[in-house]
Each structure stands twice: as structure tokens, then as C-alpha cells.
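Would you mind writing out a protein's amino acid sequence and the numbers that encode its backbone to help me picture the idea?
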Amino acid sequence: AGFSFWIQGRDAPLMPKPKRIEEQYGSYEDFQEPEQPKEKPAKFKMPPKEQPYEKVPDEEPSGGGGYPRTVQNEGGGEFATNYISTTSYTRFTFLPKATAKQYKRGANVYLLFIAILCCIPAISPLMPIAAVMPVVFVLSISLIREGMEDYARYKADEELNSKTCLVRSAGAQGQFKDVMWKDVCVGDLVKLHDRDWIPADVCLFTSSAEDGAAFIDTMDLDGETNLKRRGSPKSTTGIALEDTGRLAKAVLKCVGPSGDLYSFDGTLTFEGKTLAVSEQNILLRSARLRNTKWAVGYVVYTGEESKVMMNSRSGSVKQSALETIVNKGIAVIFLTQLAMAVISAGLSGGWASKNCATHWYLKCDASGAKTGSMTFWTYIILLNSLIPASLIVTMEIVKVVHARFIDWDHVLVKQYDKKEEKWRRAEAHTSALNEGLGQIDYVFSDKTGTLTENKMELRYVCVDAEVYSADSGEWFETGPAANNRPISIKASGDGGGTEQRVASVNRSSGYTFNRMLAVCQTVLIEREPDGSVSYNADSPDEVALVLGGRGFGCEFTGKQGGDTALVDVYASGKQGQGDKVEEQWKVLNIIPFSSKRKRMTTIVQRVNPPPEDPNECQVWMKGADNVIRDRIIKGPLMEKYDNQLLYFSMDGLRTLCFSSKTISMDEQRRWADEWEGATLLPPAEREAKFEDLAKEVEDSGMNLVGCTAVEDKLQQNVPETIVRLARAKINLWVLTGDKQETAIEIGKSTNLLTGSMKLFIVNSNSEAEVNQRLDTCLSDAVFNNEGQKKGLVIDGGTLNFIIEGNQDGALVCHSPADKFVALATQCVSVVVCRSSPLQKALIVLLVKKYVPTMRSLGIGDGANDVPMIRAANIGIGIAGLEGMQAARASDYAIQQFQDLDRLLLHHGRLSYFRVANMCTYFFYKSWTFTLPQWMFGFYNGYSGQTFYEALYVPSFNMFFTAAPVFARAVLDTDLDVSKANPLLPELYHVSKEDKLFSPKVLGADLLLSFVHAAACYWLPMLSFGLDDSDLWQESLATYSLIVFVCTMRITCHTRAFTIPLVIAYTASIALYMSWLFTYDSIGTLTIRGAAPALVNENAKFKYLVFMALGATGCSELCMRWYIDNVTMTNVDVVRAAKEADIAQEGDRRNKEASASQNA
């Protein structure tokens, strides 16, 4: 998350953290700033964070120069209470609001519409209960789920609101008292102890630390694991705990509530002094006080106005490709239903106009138009079951179960988190996209922390253009005796052996560089009760540099007073060996790192031992090589430095440059006064002033001191995982801030780029050059290298001429955009180097725009990857060292990149297999059941007479065929895991190419349903006779055949029989048969006696049942044989191969046994 944590001392006014996301987040990966083009500079701007709750503007009023919010302990003002409620309903509003929410779905509206029509006797052939039952069933399931989720939120809210803290209320006298969180008010003085949770947004006034600082753990707020330091204003720093009553007289004026976690502006007036306060003085609600005995501050924002509550928002609604096809299929079926109703209405009107006079006993209307209009609505009711309304609620429940399978997968459990005291495992944050994991076309991946471990290790340093290995264990001679003489440096050679390299090194370069590693950083040292020491920083690079300095005799041991770095310097050049000198370096000012600046500057002065010239101080700056290079004096060694940086990059290492200069203390004090004065300016003027002051210090007179090369090792099994994704025909794009040479080397080491691949590299300095280069590459890709895989490498500077983001962060495409997408989509691998966080999201949006059928997946581990994760169709977050923000913003969270293999190739593919088969079966059985209703119209004058008894209509989907389809959607598998490897990448082609659920597959199933429906209708009709048969016997015969045929078909299509599946299939038939006789005895008079007569007395029915089951079973088994042996999908090929292997193994064992017996 970048060097965004600062060290603020009493004399160290600091630059406030920028507000926008791109400036809030970053890592040293993002130090690699895109080369700025000569003709057209980049104009990228991050979109502001979404703020669903904005009470007042987060800036000063333009007229008065004051802040809109005044906070004081005397009370006054109307502010939100600290009571938190995240529930959507109350006990009184639950039923109406939750019900209204369900009717935002078209399927539920359709069910309600049919239920209303059924209540109109003039047009309804069914009892109202036949339509009300499905509505009640679907709504009941949805409301129960909604109520359980909301009740869980209510219990969590009550637990939070009932917590207590120590508060000195507005206007109260005396000691702090225990108060529930919900009763805390704006203006209260809050006293916190170590490990206390912070009840509201609090402006820190003083603490137990000498410099008034406090440390907070924001793990539950933003997911970041490192401790963050917050400071007190100078005027209140040092006030003792027993004297904190004085703080009640303070007056804080600040901006209004805002959802931006990283911005706060205001002024504090205390005992006649007015000072600026910033986000570095704010303790946020849901954070936790750490490593601080006590702290006291003002409550600024409470309840719904606190930043964590205003920042909370629901993610964007995403939908899988399969669900999109389902919705389109339902729309087409609805149009088909309308067409069938229109046809029936027309035929009914024609029949009535011709036959009403002769069939006077029917009391029909001879007006064909009137009869037809009434019949139209009658057939809308009769044919309503063409649309499987229960499919939606069933699919929701099945997807929830699939999501739990991901949560429960023991293979995806990677490590034990000591801090949270639980095992870290994969988490499904949504259940709506499970099957979408099985249909991914493109994976857009971050590099650092995603493909690599994000565990940095210093490998090499370069000082005076000479390279020294960090593995040798020896470093610069740093003792006091090293004044102005050449020193010997021992280093390991490049060939793996050890050699002596003696170099004449200017003492000042080595001296300064070594101390910059120890002092120019934002590392916090946390000492545990057992005596162990841990280093915390916003970026692992920081820790790697500090540990590198410690290993070579320059150890950072902590801070004194918050602004003085303590450094132990060992004369031997090795930690803990030889004479030790303790140096103290006062940190005067820090200009922090941001992904926009890509550098960090520290102004320091050595105070012990006393400096040779007390009127001088040093400006130390470190950052990306191209950023530092533009701001230094080019010396004679510059060319050698450039070569060494190139070699580091080609070795896949991350590079960083260090520079310094000396300024006078008078100049520093003048500059610091201007900086502190700028903190009181309005926000817009302040940012511009800060930028000007930073340029004044950084942009002139800097001398290059050295550079570092840090290794970030690949995660386990990353190359193997990438190969497997490629075998599954998934294209992988890696978006990184590294230099081009580093990115290419990483691509090769991960098997992303191979030697046999045709590699296109696009680097251009103008839009015209980009167009020309893309034309050349496209021509080469289309007309040459047929059958050869292709790869593409492009840098962020060139990408500026293809896409950019406008003021709102929306995608803006330039003329080369279509050519770039045309080239990139022909490549199996794409590497984008020197890319910014915004560019990562824009690239995903670009491909989605030009290839709308593309299914994308974004994966990353840092906060700067969140825009990319949210832009993709499915977002995957890795819970890594950069915190949990990516994991929490994602749809699915995993622990390592290799987990993507199992998540896609197993869970995604299997979920697609189950849901796709469930959907096709739902459509099939709904049409098979409903079409006889329509066919019956040809024998009743198209009058709309129902063919089924009223209660049998809803019971078909709700009871008699529900268990088999649900059980198979949860438990069936396409491969026996004990006999075959379910992670074979080739199996993924079936789901990726929509082979199991597509318009073609759905159309074939609907055609088959027409054949089965006709057979189930006509066989009883012809067998029992058209004139003399009983209507309800024929109806029950057809109904029974449909139940048996549908159950037989799903049985034939089941691949992996288990005990629960067998129970579900047999139980559904048993339930139907028991219902058949039970309802016959208690049902309506018109149907009584039909069931016993059909089952016990009608011998033809038994023959029809055996005929239907036999015909269905034989036809389905023949179809399976045809698919397995003729069409041969990848799954069938693998299955056949495995079965052949098993048979071959059996033959081998039989031969061995026979030979042994003969012997």
C-alpha cells in the first residue's frame, strides 16, 4: 500500500495525504512511472471514491474561509447519534418492504399477475389456489432467507452498540465514565486504553507517548495489517492524563462528514493557539489502539456520519453469462406463450362463431371476437407453467450451496493466522457467480503479491556504479575511522563463487547510502512481550531495505520522541560484531510517497555524534529510477548506472534509486515555515502550494548516491498454474508497474512468455507511431506465423495514446484502441509494464467494450488493484501482505495464485455443469408438463378447459419433480474423482464454450419436450379411446407418465450416483404415488375414484408406464452413447480414456494372476 505512513514529530509538519484513490494507494511496484510521451502527456485521474452518504461538502465554504462543522465539549449543534443500524427492516416494515423487494424480479411479478388472473372467474379455468400456491412458495423461501440475513445483522448491531468506553460528556464535570457506544456524542472527550476499540471518529489530542502519538490497527477497517501512527497537535501534546480536563475548552472546526477514509481538514483552537489538523490526527471508528497506554481525544463524527459507515457501500451487481442466457430464454418462452395464446384465441373465436348456434347448451357467445379475447386470457393462465418460475429460487439455493463448497474446501486452506486466530481459507463473498468461474476467457492479474510472494529481499546495491552483493554478509566500512580514505568491499561474484573486489569508493557515497537505508523509511518496530521484534511498514520494500542495512552493520533500532531515528553503526560492517556507535538522526520533515509522486523525501540532521557543521542538514530522496533520474545532476557515472539498472531489470529485480543534497538550516526552517503555513490554506490552494514546495526541495541540486535491487520471489506453483490456465484456453494479462525488462523476465520465468512464442513489443512516443506500430504487428500476426502462439508487451506510456480516464474516471478511447484490442485478442499472453492503478481498470473496461462476449476475471492483492477487480466480470482478491482490501472488495478471496487453478478448473467448472444441467432440465420438464394442456384444446373447441385438476398443476414443480433436480444440482459430478483427475485443464473447454447450456442446447431440449409431451398425451388418449374414456383417468394417466418420464430422464443423465441422489429420486416417485391415492379420497368430487380405477382396473395404464419408461430409458441411453462415442466432448474423451485405463489394468492383473496360478 505504498509509503503512505509518515512519522510526524513535534517539529515535523508533514504533507497531508492526497485524497484520490490513485494517490492513496501504491507500492514500490508503482514506483515505475510510465515514460511521459513527448507529444502528449498522460492525463490520468482516478475517480473519486463512491460516497453513498454525503451530508455536507468535504471542503471549506468558498466565501468565509471557515469550516462548516464546529466541535466543542460545551455541546451545541445537531449531529447524528452514535447508534448504528445496518439492517434493512424493522419488525413492522419487514413484511411490506421485503415483499416489495421480491417484486423487483420479473419472474415474481409474472407469478403475481397469473395469480390475479386466476381470481377472475370469467376467464380462469383453475381455482385461485392453483396460482396462489407457487406465489406463496417462492415468496416464503425468499422472505425466510431475507429475514435470517437481516436478523443476523441486527444481532451484530446490538452487540456493537452495547460496547462501552470511557467518556467525559459535553458539559460534564469530573472523571471519565463508562458509556455505551450508542450514547457517545459529538464533542465528548473519549479516553482509550491499549487494545481498546475506537467507538467513533476521534481527533487525537494527547497520549501516553512523549510526543503525543498513538498507534492504531486498522485491520477491521481497511484490511491492512501494519500499525499506523497518528499524532497530536502541538498545542495539546504533552498534557498529562490527570490534566486532560483542560482539553474540554478546545474548539475544533473541520469539514463535514465524508466517506473518504484518507482525508480530513480542520483547525484546532486551544489556549489561544490555532493549528491545522489533518487525517494524521484522526482515529477512525472500528480501528483499535495498539502499543499506546492511553489516548484522549474529541469525538468528531458519530454513527452514520462516521467515515467507516459512510464509506460502506454495496458492490455493483454482477451476473454470470449462464444467468443472462436463462433470462433471455425466459423472455423468448414468454413470447412463445403469447403466440400460443393468440393462436388458441383465434381458433376459439372461429369455433364459437360457427358452432354456438348448434351447441346452444354451452351458452357460448356467437361473437368470435368477444369469445377469442376471453379465451386469450384463459390460455395465458393455462400455459403459465411454460415459464419455470420456481427455477429462480431453486437456482439461488443451489448457488448458495455451491458457494459453501468453496468455503469448506480443505485444499484451499493454506495457513493459520495467529493474529486472527483462525485458518485462512478461500471465501465466497457472493453466490451469484459460481458458474461464471467456469466460463472465464481472460484473466487480468497484478504481479506483485499476486504472482510473487510480496516478501522482499535485498539482493544487490550499486554505489559509485559498482555492484555489491547483499549475500556476502559484508558491507561498507562504516566506523568513525573510515574518514576520507578508500575502503575495501568484499562481494560475491556473479558466477556463484566468491571473489574479492577492491574498489576505491568515495567515503561520502557509502556513508550516506548506508544511513539512508536505515533512516529514510517509515518502518515501525513492534516489540512483543516475549522480547521478539517485528518490523511493520506500509510496503514490504521498506522492511527489506531496513533489514538489508541491519545485516550490513547499520541497524535501525527505533525512534526517540517520535522524530529522532536511532541507528546502531558497527565498525565491522556486520550486525552485532565489533565496536558500536549509536547515531541519532533527527527527522525534520517528510514528504511522503504516493503512487503519483513515486518518490519519498526526508530532510534529516545528525544530532549524535554532533554534525561537523550544525548549520547544515541533508535532503534524502528515494524513488523510481526514472523519477530520480529526472531530478539529479548527471555525472560521469550515469551511463554505468543505467547499464546496471538494465541488468537488474533483466534479472527480474525491482530497482530503486537514492539521491541526496545538503541545504542550510536557515533554508530548511524557511521551507518548513512555508509548509506549515500551507496547512492552513483552503484544500485547493493547499495542494498546489504543497506541490510547489516539494519541487523546490526535490527538483534541483540532487546527487545520485546509489541504487538497490530487491527480489520478490514467485509464489509456489505459479509457472505450473499459468501453463494449466493456458491449456484451458484462458488468456492471461499481467499488469505491472515494473520496467519493461523486468516485466519480460518475470513473464519468461512464469511461463507467461515462452521462447516459441511470437512476441510483439509496442513502445511509441506519439499516437501516430502507435497506429503505425500496431498496423505492422497486426499484419505480421494475421499473415505470418500461422499456428504460432503470440504474446504482446506494451508499456504504460504507450497506453496513454490508446486509452485514458476522464475527470469521472470513465474510459476514453483514442484512435489506436480498436487496433490494440484486435492485436491483443490474438495473443495468448499480454504484459502491460509501467502501468498505473487506473490503467489496470481501464484496460479491463477497454476489452469489455470491444469484446462484449468476453468473460473477464480480475485478480490482485493490494488496494490499488480494487478498481480492476471491480471492473472485471468476476473479481478475485488475494489475502496478502498488502492487506485485505482487495480480498474484501472481491467476489471471491483466495490465499495464493495457485488456488485459482482449483477455483476455476474444479469449483467453477463443476458449478457450471450442475447449474447448466439443472436449467435445461427445468425448461424441459416445464414444457413437457404444460404442452398437453395446449394439445387438449384441439379436442374441446379451444374453450380453455383445464386438462389437469387444479392442485395437480402447482404440485408438479413444487413437490413431485423438485427433489431430483435439486439433489442432482448439488451432488452430481461429471467425473468420478477416485478414478480421474477432475483438474484436467482440457475439461474446462466444455464450460468455457457453453457446450451444456446455450440457445442451441436449450432449443434441442424444448424440441425433445414437445416429443415427450405429445407421446404422454396421445398414448393414453388413443389407448383409452377418444369417445368413451373418462377425462380424469386420461388426465391422471398423462400426468403420471410425465412424472415417470421426467424422473427417468434425469436418472439416465446422472453421472455419479450416491445414496442421497438415489433417495431423492425414489422419494419423489413415492411421494407422488401416495399423493395420487390420498388426494383421490379427499379431493373434489369430480376426480374421486379416478386414481383407483386407473391404477387397479385399467391394465392398459400399466403397459403404458412400462412402455414410456422403456422408451425413455432406451432413447436417453442411446443418446448418451452417441455423445460419448460420436460427438466426444472433452469430458467424454477423458472418461473413456480413464475407463480404458481401468480395463487395461484389470486385464493385466488377470493375466498376472493366471500366470501365477499356472506356475
About this structure: The first helix runs from residue 21 to 24. Residues 1-65, 473-507 have pLDDT under 50 and may be disordered. The CA atoms of residues 796 and 835 lie 5 Å apart. DSSP finds 33 helices and 39 strands in the chain.
